[in-house]
Design brief:
By secondary structure, the chain is of the alpha/beta class. The chain is 34% helix and 18% strand.
């Protein structure tokens, strides 16, 4: 499959999410009851819904996106990698701006693909659901309704690493380590994002972390495709891709 892909047609992607409110107490009674029911699926008998509310961010019905970082490879020899992030407290605005950029990329790349790590289980459906919740149209590349498997333009580095072994799970941190790629988890990890957002109020730290994940995903896919690595001096953050 990867033999037929041009890496320049791939947009690499990662998202960061947090619970919709800073604490369980700030939810109205209806939302509290719904989280009570939802959290019964994973919390232990001695835990309350409030005690596990920090996990709400991983569920699109109870969380929100605070950052979407994307990256593209502009040249293959040497690799030239560009990063751009959409972030802030206004989820609808960042989703709108991301959608506009994605539409432009899809129009300029007829074989456009999106690539994320565990994207099929998390990033891609999370974005689509939050767009619906925010009253936005889902970009064609993310809308899988009625599509045949070969028509879906979504790549997943975790899925590719499985090679059909669907009981296998490999985190991005694990995959980068065994492949000799710099880890994106050298500062924070996903479990700390909500605290950094709500307590530290440091979204720039989160953006940097998100962009490191995007770069790591691009480096992993490049290894899968036996392409040259992406050197640090060939990476740039831009306002327009």
């Amino acid at each position: 499959m990867l033999d037929n892909i041009k890496v320049e047609d791939v947009m690499f992607l990662d998202i960061e999410t947090v619970p919709e409110s800073s604490s369980f107490e700030q939810l109205d009674s209806s939302r509290q009851n719904l989280w009570e029911k939802k959290s019964k699926q994973f919390r232990t008998t001695d835990q309350t819904a409030e005690e596990v509310y920090e996990r709400a961010g991983i569920y699109s019905e109870f969380g929100k996106i605070i950052c979407i970082s994307v990256g593209i490879i502009r040249e293959k020899s040497p690799m030239n990698f560009r990063l751009k992030s959409f972030f802030g407290k206004d989820e609808k605005l960042l989703l709108t701006e991301f959608s506009e950029m994605l539409s432009k990329f899809s129009k300029s790349h007829k074989e456009a693909l999106l690539c994320a790590h565990n994207g099929k289980e998390f990033d891609f459906p999370y974005i689509a659901r939050r767009m619906i919740i925010n009253g936005l149209m889902i970009p064609q590349i993310l809308d899988n309704a009625g599509k045949k498997p070969w028509e879906i333009k979504l790549l997943d580095t975790m899925d590719l690493w499985k090679f059909g072994d669907y009981k296998n799970y490999a985190s991005l941190d694990l995959l980068t380590t065994i492949l000799g790629i710099p880890t994106p988890k050298d500062d924070i990890d996903g479990s700390q994002v909500a605290g950094i957002y709500y307590i530290e109020d440091n979204i720039q730290r989160i953006v940097k972390y998100c962009e490191k994940d995007v770069l790591a995903i691009a480096r992993v896919l490049s290894r899968f495709m036996n392409l040259p690595g992406i050197e640090e001096d060939k990476i740039e953050s831009v306002t327009i891709l």
